[in-house]
Amino acid sequence: MLPETGRSLSKLSTDDVQKPAQGFPTPAIFTRAARWAVLLITGSARLNKVSTAEWYDEFADFYDSAEQRYRPFRLELINQLRLRPSHTVIDVACGTGQNFELIMRKIGESGQLIGVDYSTGMLKKAKERIERHKWSSQAIHLVYADAVRLNQEMLQTILANNVQRIDRIICSFGLAVAADWEDVFACMWNVLAPGGRCALMDGYLPNPREELRPRLVNTLSRTLTGADVTRRFWEPLKEKCIRYEERSFPYRLGTQLVVASGTKPIDSSR
Ligand SMILES: C[S@@+](CC[C@H](N)C(=O)[O-])C[C@H]1O[C@@H](n2cnc3c(N)ncnc32)[C@H](O)[C@@H]1O
Q1: How big is the chain by its Cα radius of gyration, in Å?
Q2: How far apart are CA 240 and CA 247, in angstroms?
Q3: What DSSP character marks residue 109?
Q4: Which of 98, 118, 212, 270 is deepest in the core (most CB within 10 A)?
Q5: Is the minimum distance from the CB of 118 to ligand 1 under 6 angstroms?
Q6: What is the Å distance from ligand 1's center to 176 Cα?
Q7: Which residues contact 162 (CB under 8 A, 6 or more apart)?
Q8: Are 120 and 61 spatial neighbours (Cβ–Cβ below 8 Å)?
Q9: How confident is the model at residue 267 (pLDDT cuts 50, 70, 90)?
């Protein structure tokens, strides 16, 4: 069972963040290695939400080591979001907050950024990032929640009725991982204000069933990161939005990075 979610991270302390081990291996490293082995052998990272959250708790210490590699793609993602000063933005499955700096640069401290994730390990790293940048607690909020529970009521409760309108919503490398990704997207779309814009980014592997190599790549990706890169994650957005934009970039092992965005119609019955 996931612990109680849908609450602000302010109750979590950064004191208990696990530090990367240094020097000669200690028994703690072996305990950790054993945990990793169990997670990998059972492939549990891809089986259910609890194990995916646990996997990202473990992954959190290493996650930011590849931060620079993805920077150009994040720039494209943020560009497509068309942010303005004072916007309120939700970063769904925000992880360690690698999008935060690019978003904060555009919205400024008069804006509001809400990061949602269900891995406490990743959120603790995000909290450290916020502290490093000295962003005010009025401007950024971290919410520990399953994204499939995201709704206006949850936002109002957590943010003490301070959120008027969600202008922008973003999810990078989250929809390939989320077990019920279509429901997650539906929740994102519901909370986005009419006229607001949504931007998504993830890996995509075309035609995985036709050849052995792509199948192996997807199996590897699911085992190591919990990501199913065969999902056409942009399609629900494309179907509902106006002013759709999409760019793909060749990535590794036959995968592409797809960045897609669109605007919610003012008449948002679709
Ligand atoms: C590959 S990381 C991406 C993190 C970040 N968005 C980025 O661009 O670096 C995937 C993240 O999705 C989170 N996640 C997956 N499913 C989720 C869900 N249903 N609710 C909240 N977070 C979820 C994981 O905890 C993890 O932090």
Answers
A1: 18
A2: 18
A3: T
A4: 118
A5: yes
A6: 9
A7: 112
A8: no
A9: confident
In terms of DSSP bridges, do strands 88-92 and 166-172 run parallel, antiparallel, or are they unpaired? parallel
- The runs of H, that is alpha helices, within the chain are 27-41, 49-63, 71-81, 100-107, 120-133, 152-158, 181-191, 212-225, 235-240
Q: Is the CB of 167 under 6 A from ligand 1?
A: no
DSSP at 145: -
> Residues 1-36: pLDDT tens digits?
344 455 554 434 333 333 333 444 455 666 667 766
Residue 206, SS3 per DSSP: coil
| Distance separating alpha carbons of residues 89 and 115, to the nearest angstrom | 9
- Ligand 1 centroid–CA 33 distance in Å is 22
Domain locations in the chain?
A: 64-263
**Of 116, 77, 118, 83, which is closest to residue 99 (Cα–Cα)?**
77
pTM for the whole thing?
Answer: 0.85
Residue 139 corresponds to which tokens in the numbers above? 């401007």
Q: How far, in Å, from the CA of 211 to the mean position of ligand 1?
A: 29
In the numeric block, the tokens 């509001």 are attached to: 112
The residue type of 24 is: F
Strand order through the sheet with 256-263: 7-8, 140-144, 112-117, 88-92, 166-172, 192-204, 256-263, 242-250
CB of 259 sitting under 6 A from ligand 1: no
Residue 28 tokens read as: 């703690």
| CATH of segment(s) 64-263 | 3.40.50.150
Bridge partners (DSSP) listed for residue 248: 258
Distance 23 CA to ligand 1 centre (A): 31
